[in-house]
Specification:
- The chain folds into 2 domains: 180 residues, 2-Layer Sandwich (Nucleotidyltransferase, domain 5), CATH 3.30.420; 195 residues, Carbamoyltransferase, C-terminal domain (DHBP synthase, Alpha-Beta Complex).
- The chain contains 16 helices and 20 strands.
- By secondary structure, the protein is an alpha+beta fold.
- A hairpin with a 2-residue loop joins strand 1 and strand 2.
- The chain has a 9-stranded mixed beta sheet, sandwiched between helices. The protein has a 5-stranded mixed beta sheet with strand order 5-4-3-10-11, with helices on both faces. A two-stranded antiparallel ribbon has the order 1-2.
Amino acid sequence: MNSPASPDLPLSAFVGKIKQVEHHRSHIASAFFASPFEEAACLSIDGSGDFSTTMLGIGKGNSITIIDSVDFPHSAGIFYTAFTQLLGFPHYGDEYKVMGMAPYGEPKYLDKLSDVVKLTPDGLFKLNLAYFREGTQGIITYGEDHAPLVAPLFSEKMVSAFGQPRKKEEPLTQYHKDLAASVQRFTEQLIFHLLTHLHKRTGLDNICIAGGVAQNSVANGKILRNTPFKNIYIPSAGHDAGISMGAALYTQHVSVHYDRQPAIRSAYTGSRFTNEAIKAILNERQIAFEELPDAELFDRITDRMINGGVVGWFSGRAEFGPRALGGRSIIADPRRADAKEILNLKIKRRESFRPFAPSILKEYVADYFEVVDEVPFMEKVFPIKKEKQALIPAVTHVDGTGRLQTVDADISSRYYGLIEAFRKKTGIPILLNTSFNENEPIVNSPAEALDCYLRTNMDMLVMENVVVERLVS
């Protein structure tokens, strides 16, 4: 009997070939086996998976040894999501909005939050479950649009202690901002608590981190300054999408004993399209375009950005993970104080408190940031030097930080070349970078990029060497 999904393969072809890898071991493998470290402490931390929410271990060579875990329902991810919902952001994955809003407030409620989560002497933590709904109740369902719907995770006790959930139409008050700041700061303290004890237990200076909470780039940027660890690796897809790669890497190394591969510094593993394929789509849609060589193309793009234009940039392979890294990006001039407003007016239509990111040539990080590190996957937030903040206001958050991507000529040669062309004209080795989408997943194909361009007021669409441009009014 053949499988309907694969009519050419009998079911017997799969016997003995399906390997089951536990959720958090997959997370850890996605970080450790992709890292440059022969040996490292490992942390996986998220909402939950396979009944655990946090797992600590040691990676060495081709092995991973688990040394401790925190089990459901005690979860840093559930803690953060519950307050995300209370603050009026109910959708699956809205946690980054709380992180973006936090710098607008003061962490005034840390004492109250210390009753919600207890940091335990063994280096772990426990939730005060009275603040949360019962873990046996259904949490995630799916609507007609197939989008995940997360039921409220907080209990009446949390409402009594921290106020009624903010409704969508209600304004964000200073209280909401202060609560966001408190939740973010407490989460950072929880992560530092775990890592400080993990360092003490392992004596290792390298740390690999994955899991949904590892997408908290603000916390990530503070780890080396607030724990004893000296080196850190976080994969491009630290969230649950990354466990696909992690399960494969775990099987490859732990089960089959393959040799370790070079460290993964590139997230460009997705689909790519030729100029010919792109032109065919535009011709079919009767869209006028030009095809330009890189040097002329970079000159045209940078001129448009310098004059206030917003550009859709579709180049090479799509990125693996949630961050646009110069494969599927919308780019603009970071020097423009009005760039944020222009982007939100023309394309994004999103909350004004959410920042845009700087893509910076890696050789210039020390000139602009107070912390120098390689950040290939936009996975850390660092303070921008005070004397540089006025030069790049569009990518400087209200607290003087930026979630940077360091752009390496050996990894992102074409994106590097574009930023270098901008630097030669302006003296600034940075572009504003945000994901190429409006209010949907990041575009993947030329057709999706074109649709996004046509329904927004984007000024220019660049797909490989093909340019579609609106006339300057």
